[in-house]
Amino acid sequence: MAATSRGTGAWNVLGYLLYLGLVVVGLLEIWLSLFFGMATDGCHDAACDASYHVWPAMIVVWAGVGAVLVLTLIAMFRTSSRGKVVFGWPFAGLLALGFVYVTADAILH
Known about the structure:
The chain has 109 residues and is an all-alpha fold. The protein has helices at 2-33, 36-39, 54-81, 89-108. The relative contact order is 0.19.
């Protein structure tokens, strides 16, 4: 039983290190959302209709990244408190961050 516990602990440490990488990816996604306003500067005259939704898209990114990071961390804590491996949760969080960015891009355009 000790070997299983030791193996689970090693995978959990690796999972939490991957979570730190997920936080970095989330911060990068928030930083990229700050460029949404510049990406919509295609119109230079009043006749051009540039009805972009910059602020709603930025808010979706900010709230989405926060929600994904918090929910992933909660899921990891609950899973590790039950003695199970948390290695897969950062990958699920990465997939959710991709979904947040695609959703914000759809709102932007």
